[in-house]
Amino acid sequence: MEIVIDIDAEEPLFAQLMAEIKRAVSAGGINPGDALPSIRQLANDLNLNNKTVAKAYQLLERDKVIITKGYRGTFVHPDARKNMDFDLNAWVAGQINQTINACREKGATDSEIRIAFANIMQNKPTAGE
């Protein structure tokens, strides 16, 4: 598996790493069940910070593209190719967009929406609770 990371690109390094692993899975360069390098090994190979690789692995595991089996290592998920079709970020953006549009239809201002969103994200009570 060849991974190319461009440190000068605008895209974050962890996102580039995720895309490269997904590309390798899609192209058949790595297959379901194949072992991936450890976080430390991959970070050393690519001259990246361990935390960058760990973040990419964590998000790939969340998306069920890879699976970590404790001390046995990290592997390509059995359903990796199928699971790569779902874009969680696009889904979240779509959900938020629908909610914002509904709020605007009821007459809420952008400022009111931002304040409510910030309060909810910080688990602060909102009016009416």
Throw out a few tags for this protein:
single chain; 129 residues; mainly alpha; Arc Repressor Mutant, subunit A; 2 domains; three-stranded antiparallel beta sheet; elongated
Give your account of this protein's structure.
This is Regulatory protein, gntR family. GO terms for molecular function: DNA binding; DNA-binding transcription factor activity. InterPro entries: Tscrpt_reg_HTH_GntR, WH-like_DNA-bd_sf, WH_DNA-bd_sf. The chain is 54% helix and 6% strand. It has 129 residues and is mainly α. A three-stranded antiparallel sheet has the order 1-3-2. It has six helices and three strands, in the order αβααββααα. The longest helix has 18 residues. It has two domains: 71 residues, Arc Repressor Mutant, subunit A; 34 residues, no CATH class. The mean pLDDT is 92.
Could you report the average pLDDT, rounded to the nearest whole number? Answer: 92
Alpha plus pi helix count: 6
At the fold tier of CATH, the topology name of the largest domain is Arc Repressor Mutant, subunit A
Strand order of the largest sheet: 1-3-2
Q: Could you say which overall geometry the principal axes of the C-alpha atoms support?
A: elongated
Q: Classify the beta-strand content into a percent band.
A: 5-15%
Terminal residue distance: 53 Å
